[in-house]
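wait is this the right file?? whatever heres the structure
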């Protein structure tokens, strides 16, 4: 199967926040590889999977009080 990587720009800046979001996202998307790159100027969230629901990821992050948009 083809693996897709979706990259999102966020306003998550704290490692503990990023960790908690990854834990929660992995519960929703157990087959995905998920990580944050807080060293990047866009505080990037990467989600790698065979099928990623971009809207679901963005909605979840928004529900947690953070900004999240697809990085072009």
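ok assuming it is, sequence goes like this
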């Amino acid at each position: 199967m083809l693996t897709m990587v979706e990259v999102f720009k966020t306003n998550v800046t704290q490692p503990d926040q990023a960790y908690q979001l990854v834990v929660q996202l992995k519960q929703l998307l157990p087959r995905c590889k998920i990580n944050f790159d807080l060293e990047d100027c866009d505080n990037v969230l990467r989600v790698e999977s065979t099928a990623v629901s971009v809207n679901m990821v963005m909605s979840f992050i928004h529900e947690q009080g953070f900004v999240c948009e697809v990085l072009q």
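DSSP finds two helices and four strands in the chain. so i think its the right one actually
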